[in-house]
Amino acid sequence: MHQVPGLQRPISRRAFIAAAGAAGVGFVLYATGPGGERVALAQIPGGTLAPGDVTKFQTPLLIPPVMPRADTLPARGGKNIDYYEISMRQFAQQILPAGLPATTVWGYGAVASAKKQGLLLHNAPSLTIEARWNRPVRVKWINELVDEAGNHLPHLLPVDPTLHWANPPGGLDHRDSRPDFDGEPEPYDGPVPIVTHVHGAVGVGDESDGYAEAWYLPDAQDIPGGYATEGTWYDFFAGKAEAGFGAEWGPGFATFQYPNDQRASTIWYHDHTLGMTRLNVYAGPAGFFLIRGGPHGDDAVIDDRSGTTAVLPGPAPKENDKFPPNKTYYEIPIAVQDRSFNDDGSLFYPDTREFFDGIVGPYIPDGEFSPIWNPEFFGNMLIANGNTWPFQVVEQRRYRLRFLNGCQSRFLILDFSGIPGVEVWQIGNEGGFLAAPVNLSADHAGQVLLGLAERADLIVDFTNVPLGNHVLGNLGPDEPFGGGVPGVDFDAADPESTGQVLEFRVVPAVGPDPTTPPQHLVLPALAPLPAETVTRPLALIEKMGMGVDANGDPLEGPVEALLGTVEGGVLAERLWMDEVSENPAVGATEVWEFVNATGDAHPMHVHEVAFEVVNREGLVLADDDEIAEPVQPDGVVTPPEPWETGVKDTVIAYPGQVTRVRATFAHPGQYVWHCHIVEHEDNEMMRPYRIGPEQPGQPSGSP
Fold first, then answer.
1. In terms of pTM, does the model score above 0.90?
2. Which DSSP helix (H) or strand (E) runs through 110?
3. How far apart are CA 351 and CA 349, in angstroms?
4. Distance between alpha carbon 473 and the CA centroid of its chain, in Å?
5. Looking at the predicted structure, is the pLDDT value of residue 275 above 80?
6. Quick one: CA dihedral 392, 396, 399, 404, positive or negative?
7. Hey, how many other C-beta atoms are within 10 angstroms of the C-beta on 544?
8. Cα separation, 410 vs 427, whole angstroms
9. Is residue 128 within 8 Å of residue 62, measured between CB atoms?
10. In sequence order, what are the residues at sequence separation of 6 or more whose Cβ sits closer than 8 angstroms to the Cβ of residue 190?
């Protein structure tokens, strides 16, 4: 586990010190009072449904079926295109165990050529898109957040309109902005914008990347007059899609295309609307997108005993499989998320800033604090593949489990150490196979650290696990994460709730295991990136403000999470609306340095590219244990963790350190980089960047 130098030192610590942001029953928040003393705030519940009232391990783990294609399209050059029509809808789903109420959620699902196959359609998480290397996928993404009468549905969760957000009520002139208000506004309850991002897609055109200002409303019959129905970049990207691959865009939909010419990898898709990602994703829409084949696919893995192709655990779900399946799967994708619920089964998400740290104002427009936005959110229950605390029957043999951290703000430390006899190896991360298998059981206490949006491709060997029921634990904290060792540097998750993920029910193997032991796997060779020509120091910053608590006493807390640049050793804040400051040349290889001047670890994601993790280095601290100015590294350099070898799209940037990644920026266009704590990216911790020159006709006055 990564031990961050100086973890115990308050490096630009936020006002709530150690336990801030915890959302489960029984956790206590702390704030800094006017004299600097640590002041306990009220205990913070989640929803009205307590975790202890939810029976665990009653529901079998859903293994997501494969998304059915609508068609196969011929294309010039002989590469056929897999075509999908996928919509986002609202529906009821049994997330809690049977006997408790269903939950209204949103999810993606196929709208063509699917019902005849008898498949589960719309679901949260959604069906898996199975893609082949070098075979394009085209998706018509449809916003169907309307009722049966064709009228728009309001959001399931409270929408804070004081952020820099999509802002449909602003019309063409003020969409994608931070509005001005004369008084404290009510939560937005109008039609919901969406735009889908395939997280980890490399080489995709910017028109298909899910740019945060390319959102669109549903094609509802009751859109209020004067509303913008599309984001600032929608029309420009629609023209690019039509010219580039003949795709049609229209009311309530956009059509994106993914080349899939990257390494075989575990990527995923989710909403990415400006200032609303936290809410839209929490409502449910997300799914796996697996790229298979090619020179770095499964067939390129070698068994070192024979020199022949290795055998990895399988099968995985395939298109046209029955649902429920009539076969046993040995490769299973697992999305772990955190949620809170109310007694009626509805999702709970806070409707006031007071929930987070007790700050009751002054709220915008009388002060700096947004009235609803919470700097982080920690659900008090874990769900895996759409159910609270499910179980999975496994045989005494090897399985391939692809894990995704799909939580809001919660870092996960998956803990297999409580399962006797288990052996866990990591063979891949976001960008595909690692340089070599990593024995997590022998060398890392059977623990898997996953920042937000990170993935881990694991071989889990149950051969020597005793028959019976065994729980996969989680040691990641119920609070902001800064690195360190669970139980030493921070309290691990509540062992009775968020400290449990799912239950494995181990049964005898039904036959011999034909798979290659992971210690004998030779993974596909990695091609190193060219040497960099530019190094960009980039800043991770937190803006603090002074508010008051319910008694009128002063209380400091975060106002925004920010990105910026480091100029002459000085941190320079930049907002989403500011001009592009990161502009790599087409084909350039650069090192980006994430200089973390906050008290939290941030999972940093760069769209469009896969990168190498170069190293991490500490920052010089002043006598008061704050980061010294001018900012400078301290010479203590650590290499990437073993599970960070290969290529990645998301990296943990620890507090008080500079984290360096190297990437080649091969395709021109307008993209973004951001923190994947979704509450952060929704309030200024996201920046646009451009590869190559400005594009003719691109929106003016927009970042």
1. yes
2. strand 103-110
3. 7
4. 20
5. yes
6. positive
7. 15
8. 23
9. no
10. 152, 154, 168, 169, 224, 227
